[in-house]
Structure formats: structure tokens, C-alpha cells
Amino acid sequence: MLTRDDLAKRDQTDPLRSFRDRFDLPAGMVYLDGNSLGALPKATAARLADVVAREWGQDLITSWNKNGWYELPLVLGDKLGRLIGAAPGQVAISDSTSVNLFKVLASAIALRPGRKTIISDSGNFPTDLYMAQGLTSFLGGIDLKVVGETEVAEALNENVAAVFLTEVNYRSGRKHDMAALTQKIHAVGAIAIWDLAHSAGAFPVHLDAAGADFAVGCGYKYLNGGPGAPAFLYIAKRHQDQAMPILSGWMGHANPFAFDLDYRPANGMRRALAGTPAILSMRALEVGIDLMLEADLSALASKSAALTDIFMKLVEQECPGTFGNVTPSDSTRRGSQVCLTHHHGHAIVQALIARGVIPDFRSPDILRFGFAPLYVGFVDLWDAVQHLKAIMSGGEWRETRFAAKAAVT
Ligand SMILES: *Cc1c(COP(=O)(O)O)cnc(C)c1O
Fold it and tell me: Is the CB of residue 128 below 6 angstroms from any atom belonging to ligand 1?
């Protein structure tokens, strides 16, 4: 039997414990949705006030040079690269994850002329599939094949141009073996594209070591960059000179300020940029990334494994037989989240939110609990599960106020 005291002791020996204090979390709230919108670092407000008042207000347009705005997408990309196992010069911050996926998928297809199929799996996040549907219907002649999550390897053949997968399934938490799958994808000569939306900042990723070709990911989830923070993309060095940008905007031009009439891509990652970068948002993301870079990444991974493991144990201990659980039991095969299932999952999540415990609901029946290892503590797990227990044993979730569905779940 685990007790609240056991968990308080765990917090005392947690090497990441001091990070919680670096975030502005509302008192009394247990925030288990950092996988959807990361918490606010305390340093962000002051940094943004400075960027607005000084960099924008006083330095105005000279900031593009003076305050490093022009280089920021690549400088910040290199910092982020340290979190995802990418050597410098391979990551840019830009656009949204959806748009970046479109960009890298188009480049990948162009790198494999004559091949007519691209593959993803049914565990991918819908926007990735939607963007691929838009791209293939525009291109014509390329088929998108969506296979089951365990069927990717069998679907590979020499007609496949590219495979795009999200490493951690947003619903079940299932984690693909990136290195092994990349190797299989390469064995048929196809390109491997990884979406790290639920990976970057939750545990260390090793893009270079895995041999990934392209990757994309989110700035507002575990990286704590703020709502709608710019996303990132990775292009392995070996592809950079051949990967032609589909969104060939002036910020990716070899010499934007020559104002040539013809597009010529810049060398290296700069060609991944299209239009003028969102500087204010990028400065907020920088605070989140800088904070994460202070952490020991292996401690991040082991804390994530422990938080998810203990949460599942506590749910079974306190609410035995009440929930299904679709989370992989092997911690190396899951992300930093736990996904319980219940027929009335939506109402139960609303009841938890009313009590200050914030998970989210994913259709049709998933209660999704995300554990951002930088700021979620072990006692939080106890408190969240006690609320869950109270909601279930008293039937509180049946109250009509928990039945309504909002636009965003
Ligand atoms: C959250 C998420 C996205 C979000 O894409 P946006 O363009 O930022 O809206 C994309 N892909 C995956 C896998 C995600 O989890």
C-alpha cells in the first residue's frame, strides 16, 4: 500500500524538485495537462515585458540585428536541438506543427521521385493526417496509406516515399521504437519523419542517433512556450541541400535583402523558414527551452516513468476495477501520460476539473493525465487520485453540470 507519506518522501529526494518553484502554478491546483498546454514559467512575464518595452518599443526595427531577431529561429532551434538529440544546424523554430509537417512531407516526397505511397498509422494525431490528405490531393498521384499502429513495418515496400509517425500516441501514450522503425523504413529506401509533439521536453529524444530524416514538434506542450507557441522542424544535415522548400518564402531565401525576383534557397536550415518569424512568441518559447535545458534529461526520463507508474498503481489501489487502462505497462514503451478509460469519461473529467485537478478528455472514452516531470510532484498524484476516488464513490460525476460538452475538450 502506498501512502501520502511515501509520496512526500519521493518529492524530497526528487532531483528535479526545485523546478516546480520556477513555474507560476495556481495554488491548490493539480495540473495534469502539461502535455496539451504547458505551465507558465515565472520568468516569462518579465522577459516578455522587456521584449515589448525595450526590443520592440525602444530598439524598433534595429532589433532585427541588434537584438538577434533575424537569427533567433535558428539560434533557438540549436538550443532546442540539445533536448532532442540534434547536433547544431538542423533545427529551426517556425510556423505551427501542422504547417511544418506539410513542409517536411512535401520535401520528403520530392526526395523520392517515382515512389507513389506515403504511410502513417491510425495512432497519429489527426492534424498530421489532415495535412497529408491536403498535400496528396494537391499533388495528385500520391497515395496516403494509414495502417494500424503495429502494422507499419509490414506495410513498407519500395514504392513508399515516406513514413510519418508521431512517436507518442496522444491518446494511449504508446511510444514507437524510433530507432528500430527508422532502420526498417530506411531498409526500403524511404524517408522517416517523426512528430515529437508528446516527446520533446518529456524525455530525451535522440534524432541523430536514430537516423531520423525529418522531425517536427510543438512548442506549447512540454516545452512550456505558451499558447500557440511556434513549432519546430528538424532536417538531417545530409538532406539539407537537396530538400527543396515547398513554402519558398523570402525568409528562407539565400539573400532576402537582395530582393531578387527569383527564389534561391538559403543553405542549411534557413531554407526551412518561410515568412517573418513571430518574435514575441518565440521569446516566450525561449524561456521555456532555457528552463528545460537546466534540467538533467535522464532525470526527466526516470521521473516521467516513476510518475506514470505510481499514478497507475494508485488508481488501482484506491479505485480498484473502476477504470480501463490503455497505457503501455512497460515505461520504455510509453510517453509521460496515463490514459484511463471509462464510459462516462467526459463527465468524470469535468468533475475533476471542478475540484482543481486538470486532466483532459479524449473521445470516445479516454481520461488523459499528463505528467510534466519538471513541475508535477509525487504528492500531486496522491491528491489527484483521492479526488478521483471521491468523485467515483459518491457518484458526483452524475451531476448535470458535468454533462455539457465545451468546444475544447
Ligand atoms: C498537439 C499536436 C499537434 C498540434 O499541431 P498544431 O499545428 O500546433 O495545432 C500536431 N501533431 C501532434 C502529434 C500533436 O500532438
Answer: yes
Complete DSSP assignment for 346-401: HHHHHHHHHTTEE-EEETTTEEEEE--TTT--HHHHHHHHHHHHHHHHTTGGGSGG
The H or E element containing residue 39 is none
For 37, 54, 75, 95, 202, the CA distances from 47, given in Å and listed in that order, are: 19, 10, 17, 21, 24
Helix (H) or strand (E) holding 235: strand 232-235
Q: What is the mean pLDDT of residues 312-323?
A: 98
Any ligand 1 atom below 6 A from CB of 402: no
At 344-393, the pLDDT tens digits run: 999 999 999 999 999 999 999 999 999 999 999 999 999 999 999 999 99
Asked if 36 contacts 359 with a C-beta cutoff of 8 angstroms, the reply is no
What is the largest distance, in Å, between two alpha-carbon atoms of the chain? 71
| CA–CA separation, 67 and 59 (whole Å) | 8
With vertex at residue 88, the alpha carbon angle to CA 86 and CA 90, rounded to the nearest 5 degrees, is 65
Ligand 1 atom nearest to 228, measured from its CA: 8
pLDDT band at 171 (very low <50, low <70, confident <90, very high): very high
Cα of 97 vs centre of ligand 1, distance in Å, is 5
Q: How many Cβ atoms are within 10 Å of 184's Cβ, its own excluded?
A: 16
pTM as predicted: 0.97
Evaluate the CA torsion angle 317, 320, 323, 328 in order and state its sign: positive
Question: Under a CB-based contact definition with an 8 Å cutoff, are residues 83 and 92 in contact?
Answer: no
Distance between Cα 170 and ligand 1 center (Å):
9
Asked if residue 322 has its Cβ within 6 Å of ligand 1, the reply is no
Where do runs of H (alpha helix) occur along 203-360? 207-210, 279-293, 297-318, 345-354
35 lines ligand 1 (CB under 6 A): no
- Average pLDDT over the chain, rounded to an integer: 97
204 φ, ψ (degrees, to nearest 5)? -70, 140
Find where cell 475540484 sits.
355
CA 218 to chain centroid, in Å, comes to: 4
Beta-carbon-side half-sphere exposure of residue 385 (alpha carbons within 13 Å): 26
Whose Cα sits closest to atom 11 in ligand 1? 125
Asked if residue 364 has a cis previous peptide bond (ω within 30° of 0), the answer is yes
